[in-house]
Automatic annotation (TrEMBL):
Hydrolase among keywords: no
Keyword flag Ribosomal protein: no
UniProt keyword terms in alphabetical order: 2Fe-2S, Iron, Iron-sulfur, Metal-binding
Rieske domain sequence ranges: 470-528
Phylogenetic lineage: Bacteria, Bacillati, Actinomycetota, Actinomycetes, Glycomycetales
Organism: Glycomyces endophyticus
Signal peptide: none
Pfam families in alphabetical order: Rieske (PF00355), SCP2_Rv3818 (PF25451)
UniProt superkingdom: Bacteria
Name listed for the protein in its UniProt record: MBL fold metallo-hydrolase
InterPro entries found in the cross-reference section: RibonucZ/Hydroxyglut_hydro (IPR036866), Rieske_2Fe-2S (IPR017941), Rieske_2Fe-2S_sf (IPR036922), SCP2_Rv3818 (IPR057330)
């Protein structure tokens, strides 16, 4: 490698990387161990890296609390507790508290979107996203400017609505961002295969299109696809890997995405395998060295790599499964004790859910339902199923719920749902409040989410696009619809997350309770 570089990026898997600057090194999101009930593994396998050496980094950046970013086991065993943590400014103290519980004691508590200068002339800035739908109450991006003016943006899987905060400080030379799926839809839904494939194809295309919008907005010299995909090594989940030529698979790999980018006219892309080392320069040049001779050939053999990885991980998966059962727990009574008080105070969220949600609990690795429990958000009570109609229905193993209760998990989204170890059915449209509630099973989280929803007001500013007048800000996460909005045949789509509205009525077509203000431009009332 050249001696004139100040920013060097070593790939360490998924969203993790080791950044070398004039101010020292920054280790980001060091995920190695299986996450979400042993469902997700980093792809490619990064377990053979020297994590003790990587763990002696000068700085640690954990973007958020999702377990494919916050790996408690790796942080505990291999990352020096004397490293200085670059801490995003989140509305709750959970990330700091969890890191302190592991022994970390040096923190730079950043203020969102404000630059911090480190020794050696290196500047860093973290943008924290804080809506209840951002990660587990928060997601973030890291901007770094080295002493020579080389700039990188580690967007990981955050979805900022405004990129100008990063661009106002100068050109970005390395842009690292998510491109692949990181959710359970549509795979777990009880839908016909053709419908599931069609929804998956739409989601895959939307993810690519959204990433391209960010790439075009940032206009960086080099694009690094990161933060996905995970791989699935349990036999029950293996079909989720994108190795079956399924256009509806939402987990395309880095090479598939780069080849798509090249077809869009973007050819300055760098894939980071674990151990790849990339250099970027302020003059726009860059280079990369990989631990394999031919990276495209390596990806052609993806299934072989997956199968070998799968074989290595079977004892780990078996050990994880053996820890889940806790038959001593009375699931219904424990849920009543812990969750009903939260339902009582969840005014906005419970109203948004607007009906009962049922969990059908099965025997281990079986379809046999052994208990059905209803969360009634109208009465704010939890009870056994009485045969009534429900809006949402989930089916999962009883032992998974036992384990969540055993460890007092406050975030079922960041555990059960991301595991994909369940099936789901619903009546009507997607309802974000369901997942917001099960993400907020603590008083701190719930009160923050309730306050956030209470503060939301209709956006006062309107815009006119293609003969329609409508509010500028998306009701979902306040994305600027003059940038992310797309209109086809009277339907407005926010390309940030794919939400849709009928412009004639203003009704949201993809979720409940998120209508917009809209009308034909020639019928708009005159401004007073």
């Amino acid at each position: 490698m050249s001696g004139r570089v100040t920013v060097r990026i070593t790939g360490t898997g998924h969203a993790s990387m080791f950044i070398e600057t004039a101010a020292g090194s920054i280790l980001c999101d060091p995920w190695v161990n299986p996450a979400y009930f042993a469902s997700w593994f980093p792809f490619p396998d990064n377990s053979r890296l020297d994590w003790d050496a990587l763990g002696r980094a000068d700085y640690l950046y954990v973007s958020h609390l999702h377990r494919d970013h916050f790996d408690e086991e790796n942080l505990t065993k291999h990352i020096s507790k004397d490293t200085t943590v670059l801490l995003p400014e989140y509305p709750t103290s959970e990330l700091e508290s969890e890191l302190r519980a592991l022994g970390f004691h040096k923190f730079i508590k950043t203020v969102s979107e404000e630059i911090v200068e480190l020794p050696g002339g290196v500047k860093v800035m973290i943008q924290a996203l804080t809506s209840p739908t951002d990660g587990p109450i928060g997601d973030s991006s890291l901007w770094v400017e080295d002493a020579d003016g080389t700039r990188m943006l580690n967007q990981n899987d955050a979805r900022p609505t405004d990129m100008s905060v990063f661009l106002q400080h100068g050109k970005i030379h390395a842009h690292l961002l998510q491109f692949s799926g990181a959710i359970w839809f549509p795979m777990v839904y009880e839908l016909p295969d053709n419908a599931k494939r069609a929804f998956g194809k739409q989601k895959r295309e939307r993810g690519f299109d959204r990433s391209l919008r960010y790439i075009d907005d940032v206009a960086g010299d080099w694009v690094f696809p990161i933060a996905g995909p995970p791989c699935f090594l349990d036999d029950a989940l293996y079909q989720f890997n994108d190795v079956f030529e399924d256009e509806g698979n939402i987990f395309p790999d880095q090479m598939t995405y780069v080849e798509w980018l090249e077809r869009q006219g973007h050819d300055k892309n760098i894939i980071l395998l674990p151990g790849s080392v990339a250099e970027v320069f302020a003059d726009g040049s860059g280079s990369v060295e990989h631990p394999v001779d031919d990276i495209r050939e390596w990806f052609k053999n993806k299934k072989q790599h997956l199968d070998e990885f799968k074989e290595r991980m079977q004892p780990r998966i078996a050990a994880e499964k053996a820890s889940w059962s806790h038959p001593e727990i009375d699931v219904l009574e424990t849920l009543r004790e812990r969750i009903e008080p939260l339902m009582e105070s969840a005014e906005h969220i419970a109203t948004g859910i607007g009906g009962p949600v049922r969990f059908d609990l099965t025997a281990p690795e079986s379809e046999e339902v052994v208990e059905s429990i209803v969360f009634d958000f109208l009465e704010r009570k939890i009870h056994h199923d009485d045969g009534g109609k429900v809006r949402y229905r989930f089916r999962t193993e009883r032992r998974l719920i036992e384990h969540l209760l055993h460890i007092r998990e406050v975030d079922w989204v960041n555990s059960l749902f991301l595991s994909c170890r369940f099936t789901a059915a619903r009546i009507g449209q997607y309802n974000e409040y369901v997942y917001a509630f099960f993400k907020c099973l603590s008083e701190e989280r719930l009160q923050y989410a309730e306050g956030w929803y209470a503060e939301q007001r209709p956006d006062d500013e309107d815009i006119v696009v293609n003969g329609w007048q409508f509010q500028r800000r998306c009701p979902h996460l306040k994305a600027d619809l003059s940038v992310f909005g797309k209109i086809e045949e009277g339907v407005l789509t926010c390309q940030m997350h794919g939400w849709k509205w009928n412009l004639k009525s203003g009704k949201c077509m993809t979720s409940v309770g998120h209508d917009i203000r809209s009308c034909p431009a020639d019928e708009a009332p005159a401004a007073s």
